[in-house]
Amino acid sequence: GAVVSQHPSWVICKSGTSVKIECRSLDFQATTMFWYRQFPKQSLMLMATSNEGSKATYEQGVEKDKFLINHASLTLSTLTVTSAHPEDSSFYICSARGRKGQSSTEAFFGQGTRLTVV
Amino acid sequence: AQSVSQHNHHVILSEAASLELGCNYSYGGTVNLFWYVQYPGQHLQLLLKYFSGDPLVKGIKGFEAEFIKSKFSFNLRKPSVQWSDTAEYFCAVNGNSGGGADGLTFGKGTHLIIQP
After folding, report:
1. Nearest residue in B to A60, CA atom
2. DSSP per position, A23-88
3. B38: region left, alpha or beta (phi > 0 left; psi from -120 to 50 alpha)
């Protein structure tokens, strides 16, 4: 299957700082990328959908000014948590869909990023 | 709005036992249905998916699931589990109009532990 890589796998930051998480499709061109958030013992919640070269579409209740998403190329999307606070601590997971073959009918997931804000 | 309900949060079985994990969904239209597995420390992996056609879907590692439209259910089954099946299992759904890989609505997951 296609490979999606997230970086970093975990990050600790101070309250008030910003953190950037990268999501890369390693062996296919990702026309669409999705960002999810998972709280402990909860399900994954879709935060936003981004298509390459256009603005992200945020789900209801997700602050677009706090969670900045950029999908500038067909292999990279970034999620920046701005002015992070302890309540932003969570597990963030990206997934990507391509335009051809298997990657066009299935979204592949990254390994997730554990963010802890202290 | 879509929602997915997984009946069991924790399941403990012995090796060779049969497995059935329940999943019910709520959605107003035609849906695509998925089961994902997450082994400790690893990515979410697709076990199987249903878009249309035969409601009994076979996936990887001996898993299968049956879509019962009248019950809004998509239960996951395996006739004989192995210790290596210990993992977190997620049922997910999205609307059919967007194809198979639009944003998903996930259930809360079932933590399966297989005792040797």
Report:
1. B1
2. EEESSS-EEEEEEEEE-TTS-EEEEEEEETTSPPEEPTT--TTTEEEEEEETTEEEEEE-S--GGG
3. beta
CB atoms < 10 A from the CB of A41, how many?
9
Q: What is the pLDDT of residues B35-68, one digit of tens each?
A: 999 998 888 899 999 988 999 999 999 999 999 9
- Classify the phi-psi angles of A86: left when phi > 0, otherwise alpha if psi is within -120 to 50, otherwise beta: alpha
Amino acid at B76: L
Question: Phi/psi of residue B84, each to 5°?
Answer: -70, -5
CB contact under 8 Å between A107 and B49, yes or no, is no
Q: In the numeric block, which tokens belong to residue B109?
A: 């997951």
